[in-house]
Model the fold of this input.
Amino acid sequence: DGTPLKYGDKIQLLNAYTEAGYLDVWSDKLASIYGPLLTKKDETDYPVFASKNPRGASSTWTVTALDGKTTGEVKEGAVIKLADGTPEHSDHFLEANGHVTAGKGPFADYKDSKLMVFTTDKEGFHAGSEQWQITLKK
Done:
């Protein structure tokens, strides 16, 4: 709507692929969903998927500054963290981490190991894995 993005804003992220949907945290523990299909088995991590329709708090993310800044406009090029909108997981941040095991289950079509996206309460578990840069779509 033309309103600038600000630190502390609660947002939903809609994927540009029409069949994908909104970035959404699943409330089930990681191990209970995928178990041995993932090489990362940390029960404090929650898997993130795209849901066709937003599911409330689990599809909501809070824009957070790396330096703790809580006010001000988020500029293009800014590096931010996205906090999980689910109240009981508000200390979890979106993180690219956890290799999938190629050729198994839902990952049967992957030829190589890929990184999954989770939320985790271990900021900086892999340096920079919870940091996302704001870029304009080209």
Remarks:
- The helical segments are 30-34.
- The chain has a mean pLDDT of 76.
- The first helix runs from residue 30 to 34.
- The radius of gyration is 15 Å.
